[in-house]
Amino acid sequence: MSYIGILITYIFIQNFILVQFMGLCPFIGVSKNSESAIGMGIAVTFVTGIASVVCYAVHTFLLVPFALEYLRTIAFILVIAALVQLVEMVIKKMSPALYQALGIYLPLITTNCAVLGIAIINIDEGYNLLESFTAGIAAGLGFTLAIILMSNIREKLEMTPVRKVFRGVPIAFISASLMALAFMGFDSSLITNLHLG
Amino acid sequence: MSAHMKELTKGLFKENPTFIIMLGMCPTLGVSTQVSNALGMGLSVIFVLTFSNMAISALRKIIPDTIRIPSYIVIIASFVTIVEMVLHAYVPSVYAALGVYLPLIVVNCIILGRAEAFANKNTVLDSALDGIGMGIGFTMSLTLISLIREVFGSGTITLFAVGGFDGVIEIPGLSESPIGVLTLASGALLVMGYLKAFFQWKSSRGKK
Amino acid sequence: MKEILRTGIILFLICAVSAGLCGVVNSVTAPVIEENLIREREEALAVAAGEYSVGDEVAIDTPDANVAYTILDKGNVVGYVFELNATGYGGAMTIIASYYSDGELISAQLTTNSETPGLGKRAEDPGYMQMFTGLGSDAPLPSSSADLPAEYADAVSGATVTFSGVAEALRNGSALAKSLGGAV
Description:
heterotrimer, A: mainly alpha, about 75% helix, about 0% strand, globular, B: mainly alpha, 8 helices, 2 strands
């Protein structure tokens, strides 16, 4: 698949939140206002991009040569945990302003399914290094897109009369459901018809 | 013994991980298209949760505070890997249906959450009971969602094939013209929203 | 320094024990998984070959098919079974199909696909491929839905992209069987 095809696939067609349900916890938890949604989105995109490359390298250069593919899950989650910690330290040192903005979201990312999810999908789909990186960035961008849309809807919902039992999380889920319905318009036939396969 | 029983039963309703604490949403929605997948996922989570809780509880005095999160993650990941390999070898159909959501049990917030909130402070027995209870609570919620989605979305109930029974129960009337959208991503979020609203309604009535 | 060393050693021990445990389980399950895969493939091929038996693997060099095996009737090669690549509405699909050496389709089954449930997904139904079976030698395989008898129009309507993909793959398979011919 071409790089543009991969981008479109993971941003729209296989949107991590609305189609694959990966990263749903922060999606519901952090989408109450658009500022934190953007912060979370950028932090996730950052980590999915780097994690895709590092996990690909670990899999290809460490696990496969030693026939240890079955340790994939353990290796990947350790790499991601260490990576998140490292990113946190680097950002803290390099740019205190960015750290202020993203700092509180970074520890949450270790347990974000989206990061481990894209790392595993990259291997299952047999992507090469650059394709893995593209898919990682695309998955993060898809997450960002969905969480920003959601936060805007939720800001509007705050001022809308909603029945008491639906207020808060239930109405957020139902809004997400309608968004997912809209995202069904992005179908994998798009890739076929645009000749991006 | 009653104190132990409380650790077991609290996960079922009062602290139900899915509907009350809202943890572990990804697999809940991702694999709930068929009842058999929900049960497979639920049993895997019960296994991982119980054993990781026990291991973490047993090691709670040895693991230094500074490295507790990585240690927990490694312990959880190894149990998940064991489940993955066993399912792949002996129940390949469930393994294929759970797909990427199976390794994602590692980052299921329920498991790390219980390790952090319960297992590192309590005895091995209490932690095991907590794990079983929370696991069963998770399985029940997952089964409920998948029942709604499969019955209305495809008009069938898929269980495991035993002997001559192929494992699929067809519901007359619904299987000819099901509400297909419920089997898709959108339907999962919709069912979850309504169920959460139902639980909010129930708990607000309970308080009065 | 001593503290770092201590935590490091503990973390290392936990990792080592975990990895060791996984290794033990893997050594038990790996052969079973391998066996399952081989059996599954053999079963799928055996189903495709129907009343004949599956022979040796044939080397092929074409993007249309992944693997090819001969099918035998009392030890003589009568045709081939292929795993064919096809493109449907939802992207890539694979079809396991068997042919006589003159290109006539014996049977076909759509396996991996991501077609729309209720529309293209109906191509998985056992009855779907009946519109193709027996064709490919004297009578050509259909290339558009207009070539079909009226009784199959319903199965195809709403899923013409799937139909075209399946038909094209089956035509490729037929041509491949003809080119391999009877002699191996």
